Amino acid sequence: LSPPQTPPPRTTPPSRTLRARGLGALRIVDMALSSCADYVERVDRCGLMGDTEVHGYVRYSKMPLLDGSVGEAEPLLDGGDEEASSPVHNSREAELAEAEGDAPKGDKAKEQKDEQLLLRPPRSVLGIMGAGFSMLLGAAMGAAVGYYGFWKGTSALMEEPCDDVKPIRHMGLDALHVYRLALGFYCHTLRDSTQVELALLGGLALAGAVAGLRLAYGRAYFENWTDAECLVELRKLYSFRSPGSLFVLRCWRLRVACIFGFEIIIMLWLRYMVDLGMDIQAMGIFIEHKQYRFFAMNLLGVCLGLMWTGYEFYTYISEDQAGTKISRPQLFFAGLTLPLLGQHVTYLAGLSLYQGALHPFLFVSTLAEAILESSFSSFIQTYAVVFSEMNIVDKSQLYVSIGMSFVSIGYAFSTLDNVDGGRVLAKLPGFCTGFNRTFFTVFVFRVAEITSRATSLALFQNVTRPYGVFYVVAADAVVISVLTVFFQYRVGKAAPISPFSFVQSNFFYVIPSVLCCLMAPLLEKDCVLTMPPSVYYAVRILELGAMTAIAGEWLEWDLEAAQALFADDGLVLAAFAASTLLMIIFGFIIRLGLGIRILIDSPSEIWSMSDFNNVQHALRNRILMKTEADIEKTDNLKDTMIDIQDVLSMEPTLTNFECRQRLMEDNPENASLIEQVDVWEATFLRAKVALLVEQARESLEVFTNSTGVVKHSVKALETGFLISIRSSGGGGTLTVKDGEVVGQFANELSNQKFVLESVSDPFAREPLRSGNEVHLRSVASACLLGCSPIAHADGGAAWSVQCHANWQSDEFTKFRPVLVHEEIFRTPKRFTDHVEMADSTTLDVARLEQAKRKGQSSKGWNTEGWQIMSINGKQATREAVDEIILKARRTAPKLQKQQSAIDAQSEAGTEHSVDRAINPGEVAAAKGEYIISFVKASEGSIVKPGDKVMLQHAAGWTKSAVGMSHGSIAATEESPNQHEELPKPRIVDGQLGMTFTLDEADYGCKDDPMLYQWTADFINLLKDTANRQESFAEKYRVLTVVAYNARTSGVQGVSGILHADPELHLKLLSSLLKPIRNERDIRIEYDYIDEATDEVDFGLDDVYTEEDANKIVLIKGFLDEEDPEHRAKAVGLHVGDELVQVELENEEGEVVLLTSKPLEMREVLEDNERDETVFLTFRSNSGTQGDSQVIKQAVGQASIVATLLPTWDEIMSCAKAEMGGGESAGHCAIDDVILKRGGFFRTRCMLVDSLLSSGFSLLQDDFSAAALKLHSHLDAKTEEALAKDLFPGAANQGLREDILVFQLDVLINSWQSLPRIIKEDRPKMLQEF
Q1: CA dist 522 to 747, 877, 1069, Å?
Q2: Which has more pLDDT, 652 or 1198?
């Protein structure tokens, strides 16, 4: 028998084994690469020495908010949901997403969330020392590398070549040999220069310090912070005072001062003065060589620059840009120092440093000097270098002056593509907001352009003198002028003024375009001020070719003659050749790669910054008019507009190109339409601006509810806030004094201000809720408040509240504020009137009505969820509450004065015991009154500034809250050794404690050191700016400006963005009307008519005659008012409000009846058998006053609002569209549509009426110009005009009469508002009205 054979082991084929090993190796490599990438990313973010605990967080970065904004790129006007953008809210959203399985779980989710946070630099002493050490180490390494690697190494390497190089004796044709020239300059000038050595070492040391800091702490020190983030960080540094924060504040103040000083002193004043000094030095050289013509022409250039500066001053004052008011003394001294060769810049620079803000005249002065004076002087000096025979020293000085002028001119012209420079000089804000890559590209191009222009004219004049350059400039002026008139006339056809006026307003910019550079933004694809850049530079290239050909003919193409003529001008020839080549290369890069439409691709702020001028209106209309008919007729393009708005709502930072690419990927069926550039740009602009108008309108609506009442909400207290704690009962404000906490009168010192801190994270920013555990940190000592055990006279447990740094554990410093409402009831009857108990056994309250006090608002008061906690300072019991209720039922005066357990006489004598607690209830009980404290039964309610709380110790040692002890009698002359004992906060086990009021404290204290005073002033400045930007009046201004910039009227072929969207136009006008009109319209929807008549009594049974039926319909009363779903009461209607319109809709949403006639409205309300949906519009006369600042803003912008009023064509087209194109639709006649409450015509009349009455009331006769413009756009028609053009025939006689009535109401109210000074003393103006 053979043994059983075991099967052979399975072997993997060699190929499969190798493949498996290869995949395993690939996985290992992939894991290694992934680990390396994670490590590199972590080092890039946090650095080698930092982490999230060392840094802490400032804000969320690049995280989508609820409104679709990302990071700093928020929508134009967000409604302002602070909770939605807070880290607490986002963490809750992340937890919900993780629970639903839509987000990464566990540590991975936490890591992804942390990566979206913006780190703050370390603020501890150790972290600051680490940053300083890393910078010092980096600087040492940079200096060592610079000295031994660059300076010594290069010197040793070039020692032999330098021995054979001769010194530079002249700037002749040898300058064309760049290597020889550069080598000679290095060997005989730079190689032995101590200044160059120190500059090189300093620069490399600085670069090493920056690199060391970047490597040590990542991006924390290199992030760009917004004003809001600076405000948050400064609040932290001010509140949490430590040596580290003190050092950071000193560095912060130094950085702010250095940046501002560098901008004023270096970039503006010094640049101007150096350029002017070089010009004066050049004029001195001209006088020394007896070249008086060059001197006179250079001096003329300086004078022309000063004259243009004066003209810009006048233009700025007359236009009053940005509402800036220049005082008369400033105007006087600026004008006085202007002729003194640039001393006005010195005065304006000093004034800017004194005021702490850039003076607008200083920016205008430096730009005007750079554009005109430097251009003129540099041309003269360049020609002088070419024409004259000077020594190397004089020529070197002139070369430095010319180079400085070229850089200054290039920078000035490149600011045309900057936001501020473009708005001041080019009538169009530029695209660039800082010195980024795009701006640097434009800057290099501009320097090359002016260099090529100046050197080419100088060289050409040297060949063809004496009159060659004059012929070139004259011919250039003719060509540029003709082309400018041609192109500006074409652009002017899209402007709101005549083409000839448009050409006339922009013809001035031909002068700088002829002399030096194109006076227009380079990044804009369209024609702005003169002509398209492509046309201008084509002319320039042709001109250079013609000049070269003429110069060659003049020299008979003799190379030796050219060498003899330019024997000493090699550097000028090299500069001309290099700059021309550089200009061509960068020109193609800019026009082909960087060209944009500024109105399309610029940030949204350009639409809300200020009113568009004629140039901006023309550029917008030229984009829109190309595809006007296509957009009106093509449904696909309307769908594309909706898609664009959806994309921009989610990602508002997307550019035109990025949005186009995304839609082409998402909607390939519409790719043929999107690929058409003109159609796409017009569609994108319409969609973007319509979205901006809607966002601005919604942002304004945040301040008003659906009924038009302005909402003034109070924000909750948050951790990180500064607060003051004020006790009730005369205990004073909590004050830290020598480590103890006492009660004193409020004095605005730092020892009375405390920081609310979260227990989990001291820097967390979250709303304070009742029952949350918090720390209280004193601002003065930077120490935490805590409870320390003390002995009590009664032998019970007691704790005093102290403030010091050495607490045994965190348990000693935890407090829990519990929201308390305290009311004083003078009699038991008042208690029962305001308090309704939930049952007969507990202390729960079913309804608590807030007692009305002078200046107190009950808006937002919640009557439910309360529980009685104490009565007259004693623990509340059900028996005590029942006794008050029983007393209220008794009417005999004697019984109300009887003693009880809860209102016993005060035990307080004439002397105050220090151990005895302050109890205001004892005094109230002595008067027969009741101080009752209510506490929220459920914790978590928001605590707002001014709320009362009870401070409980959160460690669980006792259930009692903090109270206040009595103070002792102050020292007297008879007892000089007796000291004053102030009231002190303490906790006594078994006693209730007392209530404290939490008030938000202001930043800034009387005893602050100078550094913290500066910090507080800076915080208040940023806070005021933020509040102004978020104010109701600012939102109103932005809405009017955005709407005005989107409005197109009077241009043939362009209907405009608002005209194409009547619904948005009507909502816009309603939003502008609501805040300035005292009465408000309230619209309510009911499913059936009988639902309305079941709620509201219209007095239909009181109509007996036809005259009664034609009277206005008023609310006589309300039925079933106890119904919790009563709509009329919920929206704020009152008895006496007028029903102004009834609208019926069928199931398809079509309007079958619309009427505002009293008789017809009564007939509809009596017809209970109708089953259509009914919309009732009421006019409420509650006397609600509008916000005064908003009314002032509306009056100030009345001229803009006038342009937004709908024209008769828009009113008629909207009415026809609403009626389906016919004269009637069902039972809805044209008169009902035209006169509809809330329609175009009625809204226009009400808006004009409100603005006229408010404007004349505020501004008197200064409002006359705006009033005349309002009258003009009201376009009140006579009966003859209505019958002839709009509503002909006898059938429309009633409609014409109603329109005349509404128009006459406006005109009569206007006449009544007209000031007496116009009626009595201004006959010409009165005639105009």
Answers
A1: 59, 81, 38
A2: 1198
Whether the CB-CB separation of 1144 and 1184 falls below 8 Å is answered with: no
* CB 1206, CB 1061: distance < 8 Å: no
- 785 bridge partner residues: 803
CA–CA gap between residue 656 and residue 691 (Å, rounded):
14
Is 723:1001 a contact under the CB 8 Å cutoff?
yes
d(C-alpha 326, C-alpha 359), whole Å: 9
DSSP 8-state assignment for residue 704 = B
Q: Which residues contact 1283 (CB under 8 A, 6 or more apart)?
A: 1289, 1292, 1296
Strand spans (E) along 1228-1326: 1228-1229
Mapped onto helix, strand or coil, the DSSP state of residue 367 is helix
Tokens of 1196: 């100030």
β-bridge partners, 1302: none
Give the contacts of 551 (CB within 8 A, at least 6 positions apart). 459, 460, 463, 464
User: CA–CA separation, 829 vs 342, rounded Å?
Assistant: 82
Distance CA 489, CA 504 (A): 10
Q: Give the phi and the psi of residue 714 in degrees, each rounded to 5.
A: -105, 125
SS3 for 606?
helix
Locate 203 and state its tokens.
Answer: 């620069």
pLDDT value of residue 538: 92
Structure token digits, residue 1246: 């009400």
Tokens in use for 1175? 């919309």
Mean per-residue pLDDT for 624-653? 70
Radius of gyration of the chain (CA): 40
Q: How far apart are CA 1047 and CA 1060, in angstroms?
A: 10
Q: Residues with Cβ < 8 Å from 771, sequence gap 6 or more?
A: 816, 817, 818, 939, 940
Contacts of 807 (CB under 8 A, 6+ apart): 784, 786, 813
| Dist CA 707 CA 820 (whole Å) | 32
CA distances from 843 to 489, 829, 862, 892 (A): 83, 18, 18, 27
Q: How confident is the model at residue 634 (pLDDT cuts 50, 70, 90)?
A: low
Nearest one of 1182, 1043, 1132 to 700, comparing CA atoms: 1043
* Phi and psi at residue 868, to the nearest 5°: -75, 125
Mean per-residue pLDDT of the chain = 77
Q: How many residues are present in the chain?
A: 1329
Task: Tell me if 1056 sits within 8 A of 1204, measured CB to CB.
Answer: no
Say which residues have a Cβ less than 8 Å from residue 714's Cβ, sequence separation at least 6. 860, 944, 945, 946
CA of 28: how far to CAs of 20, 24, 37, in Å?
A: 12, 6, 14
Q: Tokens at residue 275, please?
A: 């350029």
As a whole number of Å, the end-to-end CA separation of the chain is: 132
Nearest partner of 999 among 1040, 948, 1037, judged by Cα: 948
Quick count: other Cβ atoms within 10 Å of Cβ 1135? 11
Structure tokens at 1283: 């019958």
Phi, psi values for residue 449, rounded to 5°? -65, -50
Which residues, other chains included, contact 211 with Cβ-Cβ below 8 Å and sequence gap of 6+? 138, 142
How far is it, in rounded angstroms, from Cα 754 to Cα 756? 7
Q: What is the DSSP letter of 961?
A: B
- H/E/C letters for each residue in 1049-1084? CCCCCCCCCCCCCHHHHHHHHHHHHHHHCCCEEEEE
> Percent of the chain having pLDDT more than 90?
6
* Phi, psi of 549, rounded to the nearest 5 degrees: -65, -40
pLDDT for res 914: 43
Rounded CA separation 384/290 (Å): 12
CA neighbor of 824 nearest in space, from 923, 894, 963, 965: 923
- For residues 1043 and 694, what is the distance between their CA atoms, to the nearest angstrom? 10
377-410 confidence digits (pLDDT tens)? 777 777 677 766 666 677 777 777 778 778 888 8
